[in-house]
Design a protein that fits this description.
By secondary structure, the chain is α/β, with parallel strands linked by helices. It has 9 helices and 7 strands; from the N terminus they run H-E-H-E-H-E-H-E-H-E-H-H-E-H-E-H. It has helices at residues 3-17, 39-49, 78-81, 88-94, 108-114, 128-134, 137-144, 163-174, 186-195; strands at residues 33-36, 63-66, 85-86, 101-104, 120-122, 155-158, 180-183. Strands 3-7-6-4-5 form a 5-stranded parallel sheet. The protein has a two-stranded antiparallel ribbon with strand order 1-2. Helix 1 crosses helix 2 (39-49). The longest helix has 15 residues, at 3-17. It is globular.
Length: 196
């Protein structure tokens, strides 16, 4: 059997067993599904150029796969996704709990202006994943005076308004940190609630 024919068979089998999904824009911001366009689309394009085979289906397939293939993590339902967000009252509770790690991910210049979120450590957005993954437990403790978080430690991320911390949240979830939450109001919400 020719390689091309085998590739067509693999492509067709994959189409049968992978559920097509809607466009990326319809995914919720905190979804734990990553949209991937598999190499089968490229394969299909290569095969369809081959004049030996007449293939008339030129649609692009998109598949969804869970990020945590090796973990027990299940894709969260809409109701469960709410637990990925925290609000002002949740921050007040978390500040009393030493087992929760709150990370202010704003830039140093922002923290210099306002101070960091009370009870938090400061790690700029671009460094969070590297610091959590690469810093040894001892170095982490020396630098932040906190225990280095494990993959299941409750971590709350905060920035100015919740957008950047949401991006860091997604990145950490992709690195199998399973209990990462985003303070959706961020410093802006904290400050406005402090003035009341």
């Amino acid at each position: 059997m020719s390689i091309t024919r085998e590739l067509i068979m693999v492509y067709n089998k994959t189409r049968l067993f992978c559920k097509p999904v809607v466009s990326f824009r319809s995914f919720r911001y905190n979804s734990h599904i990553v949209q991937k366009t598999f190499m089968y689309d490229k394969l299909f394009n290569i095969i369809s150029r081959n004049r030996t085979f007449a293939i008339h289906d030129h649609s692009t397939l998109h598949f969804s796969i869970p990020i945590f293939l090796k973990s027990n993590f299940n894709t969260m339902s809409e109701g469960d996704q709410k637990s990925l967000k925290v609000y002002y009252k949740d921050i007040l509770e978390a500040q009393k709990d030493n087992s929760v790690l709150i990370i202010d991910v704003r830039e140093q210049s922002e923290v210099d202006k306002t101070g960091k979120l009370p009870g938090s450590i400061h790690i700029p957005m671009g460094d969070v994943t590297r610091v959590l993954k690469d810093l040894s437990g001892k170095d982490f403790k020396d630098k932040f005076d906190r225990e280095k978080p494990s993959k299941d430690t409750r971590i709350i991320l905060s920035c100015y308004s919740g957008t950047r911390s949401g991006m860091v949240q997604k990145e950490l979830l992709m690195h199998e940190y399973q209990n990462v939450q985003n303070y959706v109001g961020g410093w802006s919400d904290w400050e406005s609630n402090q003035k009341v």
